[in-house]
Structure prediction request, 431 residues.
Amino acid sequence: MKKLTRRSFLHGAGGAAMALPWLNQLHAAPPDGDAGPTAPAPIRLAFYYVPISFVRTAFFPDADETEYRLTPTLKPLAAMKHKTNLITGLDRIIQSGTDVHAQCGSCFLTSAAPYEVKGSAYPLSRTLDHVIADHIGDRTPFRTLELSCNRHKDNKESIYFDNISWYNTGHVAPSFRDPRKVYRRLFGTQELKAYRDITDIVLEDARAFRQELGMEDRQKFAEYFDSVRAVEKGIDRIEQKKSLIAQVEMIEPDDVSLPRREYIRLMGDLMIIALQNNLTRVATLMVGPERWDTPTMYEGVFDKPKNHHQLSHQQGKDDVRRDLEKIDHFHVEQFAYMVQKMDAIKEGHRSLLDNTVFTMGAGLGDGKTHQYDKLPIVTAGSGAGRFETGRLIKCTDGTPLANLWLSYAHLFGMEIDRFADSTGPLKELGV
Prediction:
């Protein structure tokens, strides 16, 4: 079958600004006698950051366990257990002089050694996502994608509580919080009508291209556009809510939002589309801010808003601990949704998840005591087979979190001996 190129597709697509998913036929092996290797799918890096940490007794297995067992909080990962790792024993060292919540979030992806960064109370330098983007970012339209699911408008805390991605000390990489703005950013269109119809435009112009695809790629092509349409529908729901409220004789609220589960999943869908279509290879999603002290409504979990931070300081009460475990379970459910969706997207003999390292973690080991040791970390995906999965990885107590980050840098071909306060790569991953 004729080998198609991305250039030939884009030439026939009428110039519509839509990226193309990884298709087998575009990366097919050359005909007999032709030189050149099969082009592999790219490796991606993504982070899912959870504020306030987790209730330790429901998240971590018992200290004497050696097998990977899904604890109550991690139960939503049951279907994907074989493609995830639970890592224990990773630490950070707190630097005195700043709030523990602000530091644990803002420094999660940098972990600079205490007092190594001069002129700042925070041990904060260029974060891992941007360090790796320096190495691979020129291969995609967007070097990185920063997302946040903090929809509060009160601006109660400083930017250090609300951002995990930083260009450098004191220079935050602003995150997108409105899914409409994320969509417009990714697909290069400003008008609502234009971005609602963009898939129709591309599909119309791509008919000839689709006819030349094999059956498997045709199905994949259809699945891709279905996923884009699903995102559009989610954005439409936001607009429809505002339109309905406009018909009522009342002042429109500052924020009309989807239920929290839908909001997080919609942002996750946008992140996945960006990774799937090589719009970026590096993305961060911060589920919520640290210590905001503004109650959040967890629809389907509680019948009224809950203050995650305040609850974390009352874990000694059985009813409070149960509420916290429900919040933790909720956050893991959304991570599991994204992991499963990524695994359903096929890229040759692997999936998008297989070609990604997707990390769920928190900057606090315990939200009650504010300790920075024994951080909760779960990784999903194998980085195109470079990492072993389906395991409980028990690191020696005191192992720097930055050792994991150094392993990620090596995965992307960076020849560096140290990142932040690392002491070496995390060999247990199987690199």
Residues 7-17, 248-256 have pLDDT under 50 and may be disordered. The chain has one domain: 45-187+257-371+378-429.
